[in-house]
Amino acid sequence: MIDAGIFGATGYAGQQLAWILHNHPEINIKFLNSHNYTNFQTNQVYGNFNGFIEEKYVDMDEAINSLNEVDVIFLSLPHGKAFEITEKALSLGVKVIDLGADFRLNNKEIYETWYGVNHLAPSLLGNSVYGLCELNREKIKESNLIANPGCYPTATILALAPLLKHKLIKTDSIIIDAKSGVSGAGRSANIASLYCECNESIKAYGAPLHRHTPEIEQELGKIAGENLMVSFTPHLVPMNRGILSTCYGSLTKAIDEEELQEIYREFYKDEYFVKILKTLPETRWVRGSNLCHIGFRIDKRTGRVLVVSAIDNLIKGAAGQAVQNMNLLFGFKETTGLEFLSMAL
Amino acid sequence: MIDAGIFGATGYAGQQLAWILHNHPEINIKFLNSHNYTNFQTNQVYGNFNGFIEEKYVDMDEAINSLNEVDVIFLSLPHGKAFEITEKALSLGVKVIDLGADFRLNNKEIYETWYGVNHLAPSLLGNSVYGLCELNREKIKESNLIANPGCYPTATILALAPLLKHKLIKTDSIIIDAKSGVSGAGRSANIASLYCECNESIKAYGAPLHRHTPEIEQELGKIAGENLMVSFTPHLVPMNRGILSTCYGSLTKAIDEEELQEIYREFYKDEYFVKILKTLPETRWVRGSNLCHIGFRIDKRTGRVLVVSAIDNLIKGAAGQAVQNMNLLFGFKETTGLEFLSMAL
Amino acid sequence: MIDAGIFGATGYAGQQLAWILHNHPEINIKFLNSHNYTNFQTNQVYGNFNGFIEEKYVDMDEAINSLNEVDVIFLSLPHGKAFEITEKALSLGVKVIDLGADFRLNNKEIYETWYGVNHLAPSLLGNSVYGLCELNREKIKESNLIANPGCYPTATILALAPLLKHKLIKTDSIIIDAKSGVSGAGRSANIASLYCECNESIKAYGAPLHRHTPEIEQELGKIAGENLMVSFTPHLVPMNRGILSTCYGSLTKAIDEEELQEIYREFYKDEYFVKILKTLPETRWVRGSNLCHIGFRIDKRTGRVLVVSAIDNLIKGAAGQAVQNMNLLFGFKETTGLEFLSMAL
Amino acid sequence: MIDAGIFGATGYAGQQLAWILHNHPEINIKFLNSHNYTNFQTNQVYGNFNGFIEEKYVDMDEAINSLNEVDVIFLSLPHGKAFEITEKALSLGVKVIDLGADFRLNNKEIYETWYGVNHLAPSLLGNSVYGLCELNREKIKESNLIANPGCYPTATILALAPLLKHKLIKTDSIIIDAKSGVSGAGRSANIASLYCECNESIKAYGAPLHRHTPEIEQELGKIAGENLMVSFTPHLVPMNRGILSTCYGSLTKAIDEEELQEIYREFYKDEYFVKILKTLPETRWVRGSNLCHIGFRIDKRTGRVLVVSAIDNLIKGAAGQAVQNMNLLFGFKETTGLEFLSMAL
């Protein structure tokens, strides 16, 4: 049994994390921090916690003062807010899983360019491990600072990794057209996130300079063994949860779908959370689970491959993957607390 | 470990049942029957089963021939279809949990009047127990034939039981205005259930003679100790899951909300799945769980009490309650396999 | 051709008003006022105005200074904000149509009790006319200050008026269970109105003391010829637009549905915007129109009548009715600019 | 005043057409044909027609027998069903606007390959004009057989035409990632179109061989002056209406967004229905209108241009464009009956 604390526990990812950790047999939640809801009881903010999780959210000071009582902390904070807490926690021997962007990019300058803030803990960039468990499992196990991947990068990198590993697509041909449910925009009181502004509409946003772009390029580049650039366009879809990443690449050689099925199934053969489909994925089949569904089609006419992946942005794209990382960090079975399937509807 | 079979496993309640039983530590699913998808693999119909439940749906004959291999069957079939299977199963010592309406009404004539079909197994009506666990727990434990309650009656009876038990409302004053998500209409290819016909609209339907009316009246009457009639109006709401039952009654005496809180909390004090709120319920807080949330308001101006309850129609209103009944039937802990909270969004 | 100004033109009702007035052949929009978007161009806030309405929102001072350039103003402001503007406008001979609540209740004390603010222009309460055109047409024509009805009251009063006029229901038996789309909550950046908080859920709110209660009671009382009280429970439904008002009353005498059809059709026989159905209404059939659909059922078992009405809360429940009032005030054909049907989906 | 008939008037495009023609000042609807609802009254199927359009749908025979009473017919039928009616109508001097696919592809073999049926009226392929009004206006005016464009092609061709006309993108680099609301799937009682199957999910479908592909290629090829192939992936989005087409192409030369604005605005400078935005489009701003919004971004890093267009699939993508074509055919002002803006929410 280990003790954990959550910073930013009232955001959508943070509350999902509390939900998962509550059900996790090896975890004791020591504190839940919230900026906006300090001293509120959890079930006043999230009614699903009624009768199950009924403690008070603590403020930042109290949470930091409790660092010496926990084994691990999860940071679900806006970017730029993780530096100090992380340094303090690590100095106390507390492991850190950051769901934000502060330790994902290996390069300080790239971080500062894309995020527009100074990086205040650059010395930690060498220590942090990009926590995409399926690709970095062994490094994660030995780390004490995990940069939990972004939601779009998780879906996209898992979709494209086998192609790049096998050099099956041209590295300058990658186009990623991704779609996210509204929870990806977070629980902030913005006009743009109101029900009537999102419902019955779809839009592209943030292109071509969305902040997940360098993260995708960095990790895909490592797999490809070369620097690469992608076109990445996120869209907002009227649904609560889910990411669908539709990826295009020009094939380097003719290949048929059966061969590609073999390659993908081999690549992910030991992965509990990645399922290779013969159909194209739908986000509903993974909603509420830590799974990633991947399907593809080869277009012989154009010589392109179409790969589509689906995840739940709050679980495999955030809180679930964070717990998967925690399981690795502490030597638990990787799937512990994460074995729930999607409820389909 | 016991063996179970599901008849009608591709309907929305049936698939939810497969999902719950798959996760239940004491259950082995022996067969899944489907009329429309015989010989399909489960994951062809429900993609969330990919990699987890991948067997073939069997036809009715094969399912019936397998009755001697199971300890319990769940029937998730249209009304009028449970008679023969139930008789056969009981004769083989197999316990039966019927999610349909065929054994809910104690009176053959009332069944035939409201459902418009002949009741072909009237001798079993004396044996069947109305499986609303919170109210009939002891009888359920000793039964072998459970009539799993309808979704609207579950929410409504739980909401009104304390008031009627304590004779706090006039029995001729009850009005029930209920709202359901679209999954309540089932997985049939009807125009009226198409996305574009249900989305962005709300309507009342079936009133004043919806078939859940006599079921509500029968069970509320037992609690009140007298025959009673209610006005019951169901509505269709553009969401997948959830029932909200808004109930009105004229108080027999002045009472304040604090007293009523005490009465409700006392009434349900040992119930894991029923939560009494100080706020009014929202279906999202119970969606994906076996919980029932209940809240109320007293209107001193009009002398009426307003009680609102919320459940997930596919879980507490169908498959979850069926498993709760099964747990009672077989002496498992009542909450086994049902301890998942709502994911909130 | 008359000149009009809108105060509060960026709220959901205000923008709908701009839309309708833009298409109205007799109206020239002189100014659009907005507090939050002063100096923004209209199409920056509402993209549907691109290429059609592209002027700047003006602040309150500029709007008030322009009063002498217009014939009529529409106020779509929070309650308590209409007093001063109204007095100024009337003194200049400008007619006022207030979409808010400040002039709906005839009694100053009742207003102050329910709204919790002082009424600063009580002398105008005698002048203002409750702008439910179907019931108060002649008074409206002679007025210069219209209190445009609330959305819930519009649907509810139209539903119940024929019953009360004919003394067919007991005045102490009225229960109103109403459901609204999320636009009814307005365009404010509240957490509770976020997409993920409203989607896939239904809840009751505000009961039993929602501020539309005294308005409903006042107007129904006038029709009944006696004071009366109602139980009124509003609900929030995951859809953009629409109100469904489900009303219950105990019949004073036996009557069948055919007779009631006659009574309703006779009552509304000259009304373009009210349609009496043989089915129960669905909000989709009126969404995007100024129509009110009414249907009903008699429950012989309980002796109650169920009346259901449907409107678009932003049109017949706000901006459309405001324009209908304006047409009456200025002697235009009552339906001018309002003859668009619902687009169904 | 001209007389019109609609074949297939109860489908989603067909009912939208009835709605528009009902409001059109120059049109008298002579008959509405429906296969599934023959002899039903229109308002029994579409409640929004209550009190406005209340006639009976006629069967195919009666509709064909009425051809000599009309000036124009609209065909909103499944592909393969337009051949015979079209020949008959043209022989009687009746103009034909086909909303289906039967006359869109100039080449009989390509039609038969992609649609899997024999083309039974190949001699008409030379006569038919592809009815994308903005590009083919003059030809349309002189024709008597209009092939009304598909919904995806309309949005996509309008988005890419200026780029191809100016040879700004490589013709082998075009990737089209399109998203449609569920009404695009039609009003058929399919499980896949049920509310609970579409809601809260997004999926790609039909790729890489969706039937709109050759149509897009044919028309873009004409603009480019060379044969070309595109990658086209449609997606299903949980909303009633709307298409968003996200298009990618590799620039042939460096260009900045200001220059591109000029090019697009010049290209569409006389077009009432096409609006060039500085932002990226959202489908809600065009929903319920005949408009097409187009926006774009240049990605200097990758040398690609991103063009996004939005239409209402039932209006500019079907019924609205059909009426636009009719207006051209009969010499009415092109915008007659189509001047309604989107209602935004």
Summarize, please.
4 copies of one chain form a homotetramer. Chain A is an alpha/beta fold and 345 residues long.
Q: What is this structure's SSE topology?
A:
The structure is a homotetramer of 345-residue chains.
Chain A lengths: L1 E6 L4 H12 L3 E7 L8 H4 L14 H6 L6 E4 L7 H9 L3 E4 L9 H8 L13 E2 L2 H9 L3 E3 L3 H15 L9 E6 L14 H4 L4 E2 L7 H13 L6 E6 L6 E8 L6 H11 L6 E3 L15 E8 L4 E8 L3 H15 L16
Parallel strand pairs in A: 1-2, 1-3, 3-4, 4-6, 5-6, 7-9, 11-12
Antiparallel strand pairs in A: 7-10, 8-9, 10-13, 12-13
Helix pairs in contact in A: 1-11, 6-11, 7-9
Task: Report on the architecture of this protein.
The structure is a homotetramer of 345-residue chains. With 345 residues, chain A is α/β, with parallel strands linked by helices. Chain A folds into two domains: 2-127, 3-Layer(aba) Sandwich (Rossmann fold); 152-313, Dihydrodipicolinate Reductase, domain 2 (2-Layer Sandwich). Chain A is 31% helix and 19% strand. The first copy, chain A, has eleven helices and 13 strands. The first copy, chain A, has helices spanning 12-23, 42-45, 60-65, 83-91, 108-115, 133-141, 151-165, 195-198, 212-224, 257-267, 315-329, and strands spanning 2-7, 27-33, 72-75, 95-98, 129-130, 145-147, 175-180, 203-204, 231-236, 243-250, 274-276, 292-299, 304-311. In chain A, the strands form two sheets. The first copy, chain A, has a seven-stranded mixed beta sheet.
